[in-house]
Structures are given as structure tokens and as C-alpha cells.
Amino acid sequence: MKIAIVILNWNGKALLKQFLPSVIQHSQGAEIYVADNASTDDSVAFVKTNYPNINIIKNQTNGGYAKGYNDALKEVQADVYCLLNSDIEVTSNWLPPIINTFKNEANTSIIQPKLLDYNKKDHFEYAGAAGGFIDKYGYPYCRGRIFDTIEKDQGQYNDTTEIFWATGACLFIRSLVFKQLQGFDEHFFAHMEEIDLCWRAKNLGHTIKYVGQSKIYHVGGATLKSTNPKKTFLNFRNSLITLTKNANGFIFSKILVRLLLDGIAALKFLFQLKPLHAVAILKAHFSYYAHLSRITKQRQAIKTKIKYYNTTSIVYDYFVRKKTEYPSL
């Protein structure tokens, strides 16, 4: 089984310098690529000089995560792609458990490893923790992370289990499945595109797994900080798009409740004296409305839509019922 590890880079020389050595050291048998999103720093020159055996793909524009990977993967020949963020430290033996799962389970098409916090290594990391799920209204959460509550890693998620979505920070996907799905939705630019990809895969009958015997450490927010209103805009807009495109059943009522909950989130930002984030949610809604015709056509093109949630409202569970950790749901 040929594995290609593809690291998307944009002006990330410092990250490549810090984290590339662990990838090279612990990824024997895999081919490593750096896909550059039209960087203006000297990160490409740095890789060429210091790591001449690493393959470099030069994208012509910075199309974000979605278009960046779509363009780059056209030039990669492998059975399985590993889409790896540039701010990740991998560990010894991180690949074999994942490769074995792919080999033994023909219908498993997407896998993520255990994602721990690079700066607090005994805790899970926000971006994907121990595998992702979604509630009825499109809000994502993880085993090991619900909203801003992060669980300590005490071996509680050392299992291999089916999940709903795998983190884009480290996403393994069979190349044939990526092509079947026609890659990421490039309208997303960044954030939530992996949930949309996984949801579309689920609707086609593919299985997504978390493999807890594979462990990596993620810095998180190295490209776009959580304090940046643009991140709030992308997360809220793209979550609405994902829900509208992929959810089964009568979508109007789900969207109506979702818009109301987003409005409450905006008010919360105002009370926290974060007006730019409240404005970002408003802009996210206007952007969603502006593209609703296209999104509706995408929804119509998806013929089979599975039931996608076990938890009706993670917002209600977390803020009202005080269910702050995954086992309590």
C-alpha cells in the first residue's frame, strides 16, 4: 500500500523547520510531499536546500486548504493520501496502525489518528481530538472535546472506532474515494471542508474510523488564530453550507433553528466585548444567503442522505444540561 504524506504550506518556513524532521524520521516507507500555496517567503527554497528528497508541488495561487489540496493531489500517485498540517509532530509507529486498518477493512475509506495538544501533551487537541461527530443542527464536536472543554488523555480513547468525521489536521483517505468525491468543495476556502467531505463520503456508504493507537501532536491555529474574526466567519458560514448540502429530512426547520442559535452566539460575543466576532457571524449568514441557490443545487445532486446525528443539540447538552465531556452525552 503506497502512502503519500502531503503537507500544505503557505509562508510556513518556521513550521516546516520545526516539524518536518519528525515526519521524515517516523514515516519510513511513505513518500513525503510539500504542496506550496503560492508562498511569498523562502519556505520552498528551504525545503529544496535542506530536504532534497522531499517532493515539492507548487500551486499557482493560494486557494486555501480546499483548492490547495485539490490542485496538489492531482499530481500525487498513491493508494492513500495523508493530508497533514504543517504544525504537527508525529510519533514513532504512527503509520502502521492506520495502514493495517486500511488493509483489513475494505470499506474503511477515511481515518484519523489520536490528536493531542503539542503544548499540553497530556490533553486532546481542539481540531479533532479522538474523532468527530455532529448534532442535528450541524454543530461539530469530538470525543475528547466539546466546545472549549478539552479532556485529558487518560487512555479512554485508545480504541479503534467508527466516527462521523475525521479532522483535516491529519486526514488519511483512499485516493480512489477522494477522486470519487471530486475532492473538497473549493467554495469553503478553509475550515469545515473536511466535515463536508466526510459527510458526502458517509452518504455514499463509506466508513470513517478513528485509530487511537496512532498518536500525533498538533499546535493548532498556526495559520489562522481563533482570535481572528475571519475564522469565526468561515466556521459559521461553512457549517451552514455543510448542513444544507448534506442533511437528510426537511432542511428548512433545521436551518431555522440553526440561524436562531447562531444569533444567540453573536449576542454572546457582544456580551464578551468581541463585536468583530458578532459581525463575522452576521457576514457569514449574508454570505450563506448569497450562495443559497448554488448550495441548493449541490443538495439536490446528493441522492442518498443518511441519518447523521445521535445528539439532537450539543448546544443544549453543553450549556443547559452541563454535559461537558463526551462520555456524559
Features:
single chain; alpha/beta; 39% helix; Spore Coat Polysaccharide Biosynthesis Protein SpsA, Chain A; 11 helices; 2 domains
Topology:
Blueprint (H helix, E strand, L loop, with lengths): L2 E7 L3 H14 L4 E7 L5 H8 L4 E5 L4 H10 L6 E5 L3 E3 L5 H9 L3 E10 L2 E5 L7 E3 L5 E3 L2 E2 L2 E2 L9 E3 L7 E5 H6 L12 H11 L3 E12 L10 H18 L4 H21 L3 H16 L1 H10 L12 H6 L10
Parallel strand pairs: 1-2, 1-4, 2-3, 6-14
Antiparallel strand pairs: 4-13, 5-14, 6-7, 6-13, 8-9, 10-11, 12-14
Helix pairs in contact: 1-2, 6-7, 7-8, 7-9, 7-10, 8-9
Can you put this structure into words, describing what you see?
- By secondary structure, this protein is an alpha/beta fold.
- The protein folds into 2 domains: 3-218, Alpha-Beta Complex (Spore Coat Polysaccharide Biosynthesis Protein SpsA, Chain A), CATH 3.90.550; 229-313, no CATH class.
- The protein is 39% helix and 22% strand.
- The protein has helices at residues 13-26, 43-50, 64-73, 96-104, 175-180, 193-203, 229-246, 251-271, 275-290, 292-301, 314-319; strands at residues 3-9, 31-37, 55-59, 80-84, 88-90, 108-117, 120-124, 132-134, 140-142, 145-146, 149-150, 160-162, 170-174, 207-218.
- The two termini are 38 Å apart.
In short:
This protein has about 325 residues and is of the alpha/beta class. It is built from 11 helices and 14 strands.
